Amino acid sequence: MASSKCPHCQNSTFELKVAEPHNAQFKMHFVQCAKCGAPFGQIDYENPAILLRQQNAVINALAAKLGVQADLPALS
User: Fold this and answer.
1) Separation between Cα atoms, residue 61 and residue 76, nearest integer Å
2) Cα distance between residue 42 and residue 30, in whole Å
3) How many C-alpha atoms does 8 have within 13 Å on its Cβ side?
């Protein structure tokens, strides 16, 4: 199996770096070389699936207090 290497310095270890790019409305994670910092990609700072699960839990709790069924779709 091939291993990824930094095209800038040939290092093979990487890290996630939290960044707030200029004029961006939200934070991001950059995948970058752990040695020279060259960026390779971007990953969402907030995981949408986790946020939806948390939101559904709050909605279900409110629905239970109101005595109604929320009928939210299941998230796997």
Assistant:
1) 19
2) 4
3) 11
| pLDDT tens for each residue of 12-23 | 999 999 998 899
| Low pLDDT (below 70) residues in the chain | 74-76
d(CA 5, CA 49): 30
Does pTM top 0.85 for this prediction? no
Joined tokens for residue 8: 């800038």
Coil/strand/helix, residue 7: coil
For every residue of 17-68, DSSP letters joined together read: EEE--TT-SS-EEEEEETTT--EEEEEESS-HHHHHHHHHHHHHHHHHHHT-
